[in-house]
Amino acid sequence: MSKLEEIFARLDFDRTNGLFITKENLWKKNVSFPNRVRRLIERKIALTPDAFFCFDNKPLVLFYYQPSNKEELHKAIWNFNECPIAIIIENDSVEIFNGFKYEKDRRSLEKLGGIEKLNDFTYFELVTGKAWEQYEGRLDYRNRVDFHLLQNIKAAREILIDGNEKRAKLVNALLGKAIFVRYLIDRKVKMKFDGKLRTWSNVEFCELFDKPQQI
After folding, report:
1. Which of 56, 96, 184, 213 could disulfide-link to 189, CB 3.0 to 4.6 Å?
2. Are the C-beta atoms of 121 and 76 separated by less than 8 Å?
């Protein structure tokens, strides 16, 4: 029995109750993920797990065996913003992480524990809600990347309006367009702005904001 299979057995996860081995591709037929989630699991190599546990069409636990770049992986999981638990197995080491909280100083997701904490995340504990009750304070929505994004947008809006509500409509439109353009950049959609149809980089977009006369 492989190390991954040992962990699955301890958690009571199997292919009949929500466990999917990513490379087997059965999840593509049996799980109704939103397009964004499906795309990220399929194509974003840094994020793609070896396996995951899914309940009610939601990924709850991601499994990684011997990942090559843990720092990049931790950022990718947090930005994924969909899965609360990530379990990383390396040799005889098992680490359980909070997928919703990234600690910048450590360049890592918050660690919830090691192999001794596996019993907190068994099939029974997850589907009955006991795990979420126990870790409610640590799996706080205010740690999630979307909450930070909204806080950043709010702060930027306040700075741009600067107490003059007459600017609100213009500022809202500017922020909305900026967010949409960043979405297109992330998706590598070609845009025609400077006379050429091409993909843009985030650096170029930021530089453009330093030259408002070109906008």
Report:
1. 184
2. no
